Automatic annotation (TrEMBL):
Domain NIPSNAP: 1-46, 57-156
Protein name per the record: NPS3A protein
Record gene name: Nipsnap3a
GO terms for biological process, alphabetical: mitophagy
Listed GO CC annotations: mitochondrion
Protein origin, superkingdom: Eukaryota
Family: Belongs to the NipSnap family.
Organism: Origma solitaria
InterPro entries for the chain: Dimeric_a/b-barrel (IPR011008), NIPSNAP (IPR012577), NipSnap_domain (IPR051557)
C-alpha cells in the first residue's frame, strides 16, 4: 500500500520461521544476484486482467531519456494507446520506477500465445497509426528490452 506497509511486510517475513525455513533457505543458494526497484502504476493506466486464463505475457522495459514523464510522458502514452487501439495485444499495466534505475518504464502485455504476439508485432510494424506514434516516442528512448513470460501454475496471472 505504501512504504510503511512494505517495511512491515519485509519485517514480518524476516521473522517468519516457516518462510525462512521452507523458502529462503532453499532459494538463497540459487540466487547469484538480485535487482530491486520500486515502481508504481502510472496514473493514466488501470491494472488490467487477461480475458481468459492461460496465455503468455510480454514484459517490456523501456529506459527513457532523463527528464521524467514531464519530458516524454505524453509521447510514450500515445505510443501505448496506439498499440491498445489496434487490438494486436492486450495491456495489463504500465509501471514507472520510483526507486532503482530512474526513467524506467515497464509495460506488461497479454497474448494468447507467442505466435499471436509475433503476428501482432508484425502487424503493428505495418500499421501507420502505430508507426507514427512510436516514431514520436522513440526520440526519448535510450533502450528497450523485451521478455516473454510464461506463468507458473502457482501464479495469479496463469
Amino acid at each position: 500500500d505504501n512504504f510503511a506497509h512494505r517495511t512491515a511486510v519485509r519485517h514480518a517475513l524476516a521473522n517468519d520461521k516457516d518462510w525462512q525455513g521452507k523458502f529462503i533457505s532453499v532459494a538463497l543458494p540459487l540466487i547469484e544476484k538480485q535487482h530491486n526497484e520500486v515502481a508504481y502504476l502510472v496514473p493514466w493506466c488501470q491494472l488490467g486482467k487477461p480475458p481468459k486464463e492461460g496465455g503468455v505475457y510480454e514484459w517490456v522495459t523501456f529506459q527513457m531519456k532523463p527528464g521524467g514523464p514531464a519530458l516524454w510522458g505524453e509521447a510514450f502514452r500515445a505510443a501505448i494507446n496506439a498499440h491498445i487501439n489496434t487490438g494486436y495485444t492486450r495491456l495489463i499495466g504500465v509501471f514507472h520506477t520510483e526507486y532503482g534505475l530512474l526513467n524506467t518504464v515497464h509495460v506488461l502485455w497479454w497474448n494468447e500465445n507467442p505466435d499471436h504476439r509475433a503476428a501482432g508485432r508484425h502487424s503493428a510494424h505495418e500499421d501507420a497509426r502505430v508507426v507514427a506514434a512510436v516514431r514520436d516516442s522513440v526520440r526519448f528512448l535510450e533502450s528497450q528490452q523485451n521478455a516473454l513470460l510464461i506463468p507458473l501454475q502457482c501464479s495469479p496471472l496463469k
